[in-house]
Structures are given as structure tokens and as C-alpha cells.
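Example for tutorial group B:
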């Protein structure tokens, strides 16, 4: 595979994972108005759950991925019910609380496994004869990411619960008047975000490695992605993920690998100055 083709292929596949992470991030902000800085930590929780499930309990990677989704969702549910719900009308307090949780998760990961990256088994081995040869694991992670994104998009727009989440995002009071329990909708979005982040952690861990700080970069990129696409917009998050993903991969590949993350921050600043509502505005308005 030529260098350019390989770079484009890598950007296309990695951007799908970024979209998976960013959608969970934007759902919580769009519905509950919460800037969840522990979203990256949930990626770490999911990846390490899969690591322990395979290396300690001997599960195969698919069972480990399922366990990761359950643990990721449970982690977010417990965090929301145990702490966030009591201060969710205090944005600064919530932001600090989620930041502290993120730090706690990283420190626990360092205590448990140290600072050396750990390998996670691939979802599937081998190469696919596509574009000169693509790792089957990357291609499968890309395909599964898009399947999940499509299911999520359909679920939010066409199911009763999804429409209730949309209604809650538009007006909590209005949703309450028609019998929608906003607290329950908040809980659903936290659980969903946890599930998506944990699964993204498994995909990233199987493609790269698992480490205590692996959630930091996706969190920073997610912030840039949702601001670019429009906070609360699922469509915007998908488009933003591909813009940021391509920019990130091309910067690392053709400019300097040490600039990883910088390009997305430049985009973030430009969007905040020029078009703060993002490309798609805000679909989920609180």
C-alpha cells in the first residue's frame, strides 16, 4: 500500500472510532448540559476491563468486549447516580467532579498495571486484500463502529425512548409536561455514553495498546469534534470526527508526530471565534 493510501485508510478508520467517542460526549452535553471530562476515563475503563477479562479470566476478546460495554455503562450509571445527579445544576462543580474522576481512574490504572502499555488481543487476525492490504482488525473495528452509529442514530430518531431523549434535550419542563421523566433520560444518556466509550476503548486497545493515559487524546479530540460539529449534534459529531481525524492523521504522518493533538486544538479555537455554534448548530437544545 502506498504511503498516501495507507494514511487515508488509517484516517478513515480511526475517524469512525473518534465518532463513536464523540457521540457519547455530545449526548451527555446535549441532553443534560454536562461537560463530562471523565468521558476519556471511561475509554480507559473499557480497555482495561477487556485486558483483565482476557489476561486474568481467560475470556476471548468478544466476551471481553461485551463485558467492557457492561462495565462502561455501569461505571457511568454509578457515577451519575452516586455523585453527578446531586450537583448537575452546578456546571463548574460537575466539571471539577468529572475531572477528579478522570484522574482517579488513571491513578487506579497505574497502581494496578503500572505505566507500561499492555497488549489487547485483536478482534480478528490477518489482512484483507483491500487498498493493497488492510489489517482485518482495523477494518472490522471500522465496520462495527459504523453499524453502532447507524443503530444509535435510528434509535434516537425513531424509537419512543429516543424521541423522549430528544424532547428532554429541547426542554426539560416541556418534556415533563408530557410525562417524560428527565432524570431517567439523563441516566439513559450516561449509560449509553459509557457503553460507547468503553467499546471504543476496546477497539483502540486492540489496534494500538492499552495504557493508563489512553483516554486523554480521544477526550481532547472529542471536545474539538463536538464543537466543530455543533454541541449536541450527532450528525455534526460524525462529520467533525472525520475532519479532525483526517487533520490529526495527516499532521502526524506528514508534518511532525509531536504535533499530535495540536491541530485539533487550533481548529477548536478557530471554530469558537468564527462559528461558535458549530457546523450543524445544536440539534439537542437544552
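The residue assignment follows.
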Amino acid at each position: 500500500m502506498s504511503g498516501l493510501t495507507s494514511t487515508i485508510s488509517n484516517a478513515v478508520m480511526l475517524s469512525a472510532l473518534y465518532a463513536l467517542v464523540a457521540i457519547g460526549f455530545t449526548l451527555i452535553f446535549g441532553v443534560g448540559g454536562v461537560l463530562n471530562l471523565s468521558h476519556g476515563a471511561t475509554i480507559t475503563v473499557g480497555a482495561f476491563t477487556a485486558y483483565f477479562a482476557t489476561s486474568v479470566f481467560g475470556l476471548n476478546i468478544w466476551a471481553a468486549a461485551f463485558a467492557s460495554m457492561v462495565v462502561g455503562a455501569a461505571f457511568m450509571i454509578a457515577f451519575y447516580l452516586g455523585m453527578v445527579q446531586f450537583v448537575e445544576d452546578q456546571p463548574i462543580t460537575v466539571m471539577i467532579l468529572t475531572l477528579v474522576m478522570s484522574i482517579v481512574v488513571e491513578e487506579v490504572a497505574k497502581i494496578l498495571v503500572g505505566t507500561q502499555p499492555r497488549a489487547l488481543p485483536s478482534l480478528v487476525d490477518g489482512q484483507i486484500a483491500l487498498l493493497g492490504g488492510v489489517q482485518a482488525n482495523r477494518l472490522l473495528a471500522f465496520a462495527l463502529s459504523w453499524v453502532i452509529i447507524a443503530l444509535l442514530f435510528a434509535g434516537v430518531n425513531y424509537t419512543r425512548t429516543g424521541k423522549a431523549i430528544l424532547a428532554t434535550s429541547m426542554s426539560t419542563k416541556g418534556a415533563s409536561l408530557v410525562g417524560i421523566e428527565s432524570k431517567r433520560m439523563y441516566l439513559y444518556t450516561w449509560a449509553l455514553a459509557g457503553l460507547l466509550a468503553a467499546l471504543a476503548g476496546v477497539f483502540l486497545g486492540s489496534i494500538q495498546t492499552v495504557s493508563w493515559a489512553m483516554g486523554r487524546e480521544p477526550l481532547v479530540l472529542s471536545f474539538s469534534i463536538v464543537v466543530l460539529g455543533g454541541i449536541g449534534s450527532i450528525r455534526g459529531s460524525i462529520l467533525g470526527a472525520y475532519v479532525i481525524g483526517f487533520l490529526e492523521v495527516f499532521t502526524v504522518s506528514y508534518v511532525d508526530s509531536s504535533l499530535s493533538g495540536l491541530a485539533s486544538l487550533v481548529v477548536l479555537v478557530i471554530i469558537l471565534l468564527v462559528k461558535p455554534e458549530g457546523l450543524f448548530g445544536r440539534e439537542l437544545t437544552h
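The radius of gyration is 18 Å. Compare this with the pattern of hydrophobic and polar residues in the output above.
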